[in-house]
Fold this sequence. Notes:
By secondary structure, the chain is of the alpha/beta class. The protein has a single domain (4-140), classed as 3-Layer(aba) Sandwich (Rossmann fold). The chain is 52% helix and 21% strand. Strands 3-2-1-4-5 form a 5-stranded parallel β-sheet, with helices on both faces. Helix 4 (91-102) crosses helix 6 (125-132). The radius of gyration is 15 Å and the shape is globular. The relative contact order is 0.24.
Amino acid sequence: MTDTLLVATDGSDGADTAVDRAIELADVMNATLHAVHVIEDIDAIVAPMTAEQDAVRKGTEAYAEEVLGDVADRAETAGVPCETTIKRGVPNERILSYAADVGADMIVLGALGRSSLVDVLLGSTADRVSRRSDVSVLLAR
Length: 141
């Protein structure tokens, strides 16, 4: 039985499709939906101790809150209970640890999301999560 679904979103079109599928599944399965947005470590994006670092941090937090607010609104419209959270760190690691924390029975991800050159060279977050997860992973296209 699936009681808890986790959807990871970065606000991309691919993640938006994953949110749609996760809400549909949670509705059919009477499951609680947990939505997570992972903010990558700011020091990996902007050199430490720069004047821009605080502005980047605030911008990424505001964006994460906006994206998760949209997921919560859509879930509420569908009558699906939804909890949202923002995590910081390496996306695939935080998604997997959060899935374990909430006891997720399934993880739903967009097959294509926001990518960096590192993702192109080393593999995507979706690929890493699907290979390392102890629970089923649905990749929405």
